[in-house]
Amino acid sequence: MGLNHLDSLLQQSQDTISAMLEDGLDAEQEFEIEHHLVSGNFDLLEKAAVDLVKAGFHVDDAEEFETDVGETLFYFAAISLVKLDDDVLAAQTRAVCEIANKVGVEYDGWGTYLGDEEEE
User: Fold this and answer.
1) Of residues 88, 111, 101, 113, the one with CA closest to residue 5
2) Strands, DSSP E only, in 14-53?
3) Quick one: pLDDT at residue 120?
4) Each residue of 109-118: b (16+ CB within 10 Å) or e?
5) SS3 79
6) Domains, the chain, ranges and CATH?
7) 52: exposed, middle or buried (C-beta count within 10 Å: 0-12, 13-18, 19+)?
8) Are strands 106-111 and 72-83 parallel, antiparallel or unpaired?
């Protein structure tokens, strides 16, 4: 078993889609989906980014942050534009999880921004 637990990530994805649809979001609308990856090892995170670009994702530049206990970590988002389709997002979750496990970084699931872009 890898670092990331695919079954949990798939359930989280399905739960997120269900919650978004229950909140009245349009299943036919495309959303910018951000798959979040994190590691304390920048080189490993960079390997994941290269593989995700090859898999068709747009990858943001990695950023650095410090945890509450003083640990320095790096993170980035692998971005796609898709509808709220369980099969599509499950396939993306599987692909990102596989890459994250292969290179040894944490995959923290996906999310999207639902607010007004002017609010950013």
Assistant:
1) 101
2) 30-39
3) 44
4) bbeeeeeeee
5) strand
6) 6-22+44-114 (3.30.70.970)
7) buried
8) unpaired
